[in-house]
Amino acid sequence: MPFVRDFEGDELAQRVYLVLFGPGKIGKTRSALALVTDHNQYVFLLSVDSGILYVRQNPKLFKGKLGVYTGKGPWTLKRTRDNLKETTSRVKALMEKVPAEKVWVVLDTATHLQTAFLAEARRVVVNKGHGRELASISDEYEREMVTQVDYQVNLGHMAEVADALMGMPCNVVVNCLEKAETKGRDKTGVMLPSLSGGAYTRIMGDADAVLRMESSEDGERIFKTFVQGSDSGDRSGNLDRIEPADLKHIQRKMLGVSDTVSERPENAEAGTA
Prior knowledge:
The chain is an alpha/beta fold. It is built from eight helices and eleven strands.
């Protein structure tokens, strides 16, 4: 493939890739749903933690604009691959009718997806695949096996998810819980996205902006684009350190485009799954 020399026709020019992290129940999922209710956008929500009570309570608000991938039971590797494949297909079909800046794919949350992968891999490789052998050898070997499994999940499975998200020709939001940074046994006071190993490096490295969601002194939800000691930041250079907790506002400001909202085609639907 030759080097790209003309960026004026870049299909990704009107999209952003955001990582949003913060404490549980702060409103990360609701901020994604507000893309539909407040901004007439189309959202494909990969809901690993099934935090969609608001959707179930207000289904008419989301009809035709929100596609949710959820369901019963844990998110396995196969299920994730199937969902990502179908999401890509539906996004491309929708974008034949709707501009890229109005289409969003949201992973909610990457923290829970990584945990699900780790649990599945340990169950299959450690407990089932080698259970008899491990019963007859030392605990040290079992710990080593678990370490290898965790490493492969972070290096392989989460990187596969990151590749799929980077390949989406639309806006992408990766939601994460947060964790306190520690040095030795001491907490530094810095909050980080709750991802481990290679998953943290890859997902954070792909992002155009990393935002921490928190409450202001008056109780309003805000996005912080710079948190001292963390990897938060903004590649566009257009965001202030504190922004309203509005993903569409973030997108427009990063891209330097007008706040004018285009009309929604009557025959366009995000679909559900």
